[in-house]
Amino acid sequence: MMEPCDVLGAMTGVFAVVCCWLSAVFPTHLSPVMAASVNMTRQDVLEILIVNSSTYNARIAPDYEQDHATTVDVQIYVLSIDTVNEQSMDYSLHIYLRQRWVDPRLQFMNYSRAVWLELDAKLMSKVWVPDTFFRNEKKGEFHIVTVPNRLMHLYRNGTIYYSMRLSVLLSCHMKLQKYPLDVQKCPILIASYGYTTENIIYRWIDHKPIDYQDNLQLSQYTLVGESLDNCTKTYKETGSFSCVRADFILKRDVGFYIIQVYVPSVLIVILSWVSFWLDIEAIPARISLGVLTVLTMTTQSSGARSSLPRVSYVKAIDVWMATCLFFVFASLLEFAYINVLARRRMPYQCFGTPESMETSPGANGSHHSRTDGDRTEKHRLARQNSQAVRFYGKSGARYCDRMARFVFPLAFVMFNMTYWLIYVFVEFD
Ligand SMILES: *[C@@H]1O[C@H](CO)[C@@H](O)[C@H](O)[C@H]1NC(C)=O
Ligand SMILES: *[C@@H]1O[C@H](CO)[C@@H](O)[C@H](O)[C@H]1NC(C)=O
Ligand SMILES: *[C@@H]1O[C@H](CO)[C@@H](O)[C@H](O)[C@H]1NC(C)=O
Ligand SMILES: *[C@@H]1O[C@H](CO)[C@@H](O)[C@H](O)[C@H]1NC(C)=O
């Protein structure tokens, strides 16, 4: 048995539904009051919502009274990545920063049928926006020609889409151990300055959080991709602040360094070997060749490192330059060494002793009862005796030069193999 009240309630409900349906189908004829409000002009909607509103206050965050935070979805559209500076450890970005959040106070589905409303720069200043900043920013600027480059769209359900054009210089701590064969990760950290996680939470949007202009070109790097992260941080004094982070993965283009650094230094090292083909009597030629290559190598090495910060660790370029310098210096020393020996009336060795010499029997025969000291002394004499035939005077020096023609290039090729294998394939921390 239904109470009269219930029947009345049910009938009112049915009437309301019919009314709503009718007003949707024939808005102007049957429901003038509702139609008038739904068909308000866009200008009036903005007036009512923002300017004349007694409830909206741009100084208060949207969910200030609620127990949940306002979620701000962030997207970055990269227009260009301009300079990446190793010396000052920073890079500059030219971006559109896009933010999207819901402000329930600005819903207008009851006032207008428009899908969105575009707000003017002067009206934007009357709307609450999150106090976003870049945690690793060194310098930044808005673009204000001819008016501030900002955009704001207001959707029916209170979603606000806010975009602005920015040029920022961001710090990027680089690890240069593998320079110039390195890959750098340069971050951008977006956080709220004043609102803790109670009021604002940042999130990357789902679709293409980092988007790039089609023909994005970097001068010295190739953009490999990006990685996203959450950098929410809690400070003891002020509380927990939401933050999102993206790392641009930049791979250095090694072509420039191959042409400017590696090829010239290889040529200088090869040039220093020319000395081994010159006669031992050509002292001025060999000395000037040696000194010239050493000096050129020194200049090369300081030139290659001039644009780098004075970090205390060893970089790949240091290893390369130091080894090349060592090679040209060694070929200069080789000449000095054999030049001295050639003038001595004594037998000598070039580059250590071949293995077979160690076991050659001495003149006196060996006795097992001898002490170790005696034995090594005997071996030394034996070596000298057997080498005396070859390594003596100028012909011996020429023989040393002939050996150097193979030893030096072989050692350099081995160094190259090790160097490139390690620096190209091994990951450093
Ligand atoms: C807004 O307020 C002004 C002055 O108080 C008034 O003239 C105007 O009609 C109001 N606008 C709307 C859309 O109510
Ligand atoms: C829109 O109108 C409906 C029904 O009249 C009401 O329940 C709702 O709260 C209104 N929404 C806004 C944002 O005023
Ligand atoms: C609000 O409307 C926009 C555009 O129609 C839509 O993309 C978005 O998902 C809506 N948001 C909510 C919370 O309903
Ligand atoms: C980020 O991490 C914090 C805790 O460290 C967590 O509370 C928060 O929900 C995370 N944010 C996102 C967007 O996942």
TrEMBL record:
One of its GO terms (molecular function) is chloride channel activity. InterPro entries: GABAA/Glycine_rcpt, Neur_chan_lig-bd, Neur_chan_lig-bd_sf, Neur_channel, Neuro-gated_channel_TM_sf, Neuro_actylchol_rec, Neurotrans-gated_channel_TM, Neurotransmitter_ion_chnl_CS. NCBIfam families: LIC (TIGR00860). The keyword Magnesium does not apply. Residues 261-344 form the Neurotransmitter-gated ion-channel transmembrane domain. It is found in: Postsynaptic cell membrane. GO terms for cellular component: chloride channel complex; postsynaptic membrane. Residues 355-379 are annotated as: Disordered. This is Gamma-aminobutyric acid receptor subunit beta. Pfam families: Neur_chan_LBD (PF02931), Neur_chan_memb (PF02932). The keyword Glycoprotein applies. Residues 369-379 have a biased composition (Basic and acidic residues). The chain crosses the membrane at residues 254-276, 283-299, 319-338, 406-426. Its main location: membrane. It is a multi-pass membrane protein. Keywords: Cell membrane, Chloride, Chloride channel, Disulfide bond, Glycoprotein, Ion channel, Ion transport, Ligand-gated ion channel, Membrane, Postsynaptic cell membrane, Receptor, Signal, Synapse, Transmembrane, Transmembrane helix, Transport. Gene3D superfamilies: Neurotransmitter-gated ion-channel ligand-binding domain (2.70.170.10), Neurotransmitter-gated ion-channel transmembrane domain (1.20.58.390).
